[in-house]
Amino acid sequence: MALLNILQFPDPRLRTRAKPVEVFDDNLATLVRDMFETMYEAPGIGLAATQVDVHRRLLVMDVSEDKDQSRVLINPELIETQGEEEMDEGCLSVPGYYETVRRAEKIRVRAQDVSGKVFEFDADGLEAVCIQHEMDHLEGKLFVDYISSLKRDRIRKKLEKQKKIAS
Length: 167
Ligand code: NI
Fold this sequence. Notes:
Layout (H helix, E strand, L loop, with lengths): L25 H16 L4 E3 L9 E4 L9 E12 L2 E5 L9 E5 L2 E7 L5 E7 H14 L10 H18 L1
Antiparallel strand pairs: 1-2, 2-3, 3-6, 4-5, 6-7
The structure holds nickel (II) ion.
Nickel (II) ion (NI) binds next to helix 2.
């Protein structure tokens, strides 16, 4: 297993639109394992392949308190959404910042597992928010896109400054 490097806003690679996963092989299984390790280590509740510079449609997540409910979604699609809800969100690619984002309250998701098998399930609450947030990454979208450009610029400048000091 290996820890993967997480891209940080405003890295332009985070703006890439991911392509579907077509091959369900050992390389995919290894990527999924590495993404879980990277997510748990960070620590975070979700990680999209885009964030580790792999531009394929997959994400890993675990919103449980005990970190024992790992879930991988490959080629995820929202097939139903219901209601609206606002929650404070953060992101491993925008470290240290939390902003309120409005999203669908309940969703029905169709995805494939690591062997390519299609499954569907319903999600709400934090799980629904996390799935929508990670699916945005696959479109090249970040949660800071939902806030004002003034605020977003402020975050961008601060993160760029931190990066300069760190490197
Ligand atoms: Ni994120």
